[in-house]
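Hallway conversation turned thread

IA: we were arguing at lunch whether anyone had actually written out TM2 domain-containing protein end to end. Turns out nobody had. So, for the record, here is the sequence (112 residues) and right after it the structure tokens. Reply here if something looks off.
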Amino acid sequence: MEAQKVDMYLMSNAKYFRSQQLNYIRERLLNLDESKWTMLQSIELKDPTTIIIVSILAGGLGIDRFLIGDTGMGVGKLLTCGGAGIWTIVDWFLIMDATRDKNIEKIQQFLG
């Protein structure tokens, strides 16, 4: 794929990934076939900022974990009321990186 397209994609979506993952993603996208570009654009990435806001407001119910696809952890937080509040507070610090990790998993599944 064209380097300019890849760089534009990374510039517009950099907040969805950890900074140390950007070079890996760039290298993989440069080797990607041009016909897969539209499918790449359709991958739904979760915004870490939105998820942290949801975590602050409703993290005790596990909604933040449900949104990023961690159903098991979401159920656990829901049943334990956020681990008596402790799990909720810990997630305030971890949920943004967990969201970025889920986003990189989606990209890796697409890239194969």
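OS: looked through it. Residues 55 and 91 are 7 Å apart (CA to CA).
IA: good, adding that to the notes. Helices lie at 3-13, 22-30, 37-41, 48-58, 63-68, 71-79, 81-84, 86-111.
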